[in-house]
Amino acid sequence: MKFTKLGKALMMSALSAGLILGISSCVESYTTGFLYVTGMETVQSGNNGIISGFKIDHDTGYLRPISQFPISSGGSNPIRAVLLPGSRFLYVLNRGVNAQGNPDCYGTTGDTVCQNSNITQFVVGGNGIMTPQETFYTQGLNPFRLISDTAGGYLLALDHDAPNSAACQLALGPKVTSCADVTVFKIDSTTGRLSVVTNAQVTSASGSPLTYFPVPSNPIDFTMAPGFLLTLSGTPTTGDSVFPYTYSASSGQLTLNQNTSQPLGIYQGTAMVNAGGDIYVLDNEPPTSNPNNAVSQILPFTVGTAGALEAQTSGIVPDDPTMADPLWVLQESKGKFIYVANGANNPAVATNPDGGIAGYVLTTAPTWQLSPTTPSYFPTGAGPQCLVEDPSDQYLYTANYSDSTVTGRIVDPNAGVLNTLRDGSKFNLAGPATWCLVDGRTD
């Protein structure tokens, strides 16, 4: 068969178009990771816990629900979740509720104790699907925080109330009448099963080893730093302080260096977070020096000898003046910016009805400093509870309690500004959100 010049030209054009279309069809958006959100289901009573799951679109940051989600969290009032390195095992802390249905439980008797609190283990499979496995229990009462060490060898739970006041005195001094505690679990690397690590330093009055590690009463939060576990505690009358344990990554053992806490000079601490190696204590009260009429503040520290906190050279940093109730700190992957999730607005600023994110530029030379981005305030849904960065380092997400949504934003890598997603920045949940995390494994 012979082709005329015109026929050859037409055929080559068709082949070129097909080649271009073929290449274009290969350059499709894909899932860069999964976002998981714990919370409650609005249509159910009893604070039934659920986990919502979303695929994160690499090109747009848009969230698409994962098939079969939401699923049960394994209990009521899930408050925290931890995904281990390697993305095989996920653990959800279900706080439970007391006899009055209140999820904020404090105390050791009667209606003050959260009932049916547990830690539920999940196996994470392909396409982000999660399958529940076993249920485990802390050694104290009213657990409300959950973290793992960096290697994923141990899981630690902060119990608001220790079960025995005598043990508090043995660990923290004869004048201590009550305390909180940390339960440490060793994680089986094959099955994910948890086993309790006993206290090698302190025994009970009967001489048997304790199954928990006492910390000062009225705990607010805890975090890990290299070689240490730090617990933030406090009361409106005595103020907030930090209590250090030396942490062994090989055994999970916590060892007392001293039984005294380090006062911080604040009274309304809300959280303590290790972000990029620095420890940030968040406080819902205005700084003494208040140049921008902030109603809350950020206290940045490094960790020194015996776990003592040493203030960064910049000193206390005011929160964005439009916001209040700081709850979480995130240092983005490139280490250039710090973001603070605030659960509420400054009541004096009517233009900000919900919570939001405060943005800061981080500089370390010649001195360490946080300077507000321009602009410095980025709206979210109402009552954000967490702040995470997606696995491709392009997007930030908050999960919002008060309006049952997830908010997504695009990170400007040059200025640190958080822009809205082009396909929409809010995504609905089945009920109030309590925590969020991301998984970079997509197979």
Could you walk me through the main structural features you see in this protein, from its secondary elements to its overall organization?
The chain has 443 residues and is mainly beta. It has a domain at 30-137 and 387-411 and 423-443. Helices cover 7% and strands 46% of the residues. The protein is built from 2 helices and 33 strands. It has helices at residues 5-26, 165-172, and strands spanning 31-40, 48-57, 63-65, 71-76, 78-83, 89-94, 118-124, 130-136, 141-148, 154-161, 180-187, 194-196, 213-215, 219-225, 228-235, 239-247, 254-256, 262-263, 269-275, 278-283, 297-303, 309-311, 317-318, 323-331, 337-345, 356-363, 369-379, 388-389, 395-400, 405-411, 418-420, 426-428, 433-439. Strands 1, 2, 3, 4 and 33 form a 5-stranded antiparallel beta sheet that branches. Strand 2 and strand 3 (63-65) form a beta hairpin. The longest helix has 22 residues, at 5-26. The radius of gyration is 24 Å and the shape is globular. The model is unreliable at 6-27 (pLDDT under 50).
Task: Please supply descriptive tags for the structure shown above.
443 residues, 5-stranded antiparallel sheet, 7% helix, 2 helices, mainly beta
Helix content: under 10%
Mean pLDDT across all residues, rounded?
90
Largest sheet: 5 strands, antiparallel
- Span from first to last CA? 49 Å
Number of helices, counting only DSSP H or I runs of 4 residues or more: 2
Overall body shape: globular
Poorly predicted ranges: 6-27
Number of strands: 33
Gyration radius over CA: 24 Å
Instruction: Tell me the β content.
Output: over 45%
Q: What class, by secondary structure content?
A: mainly beta
Oligomeric category:
single chain
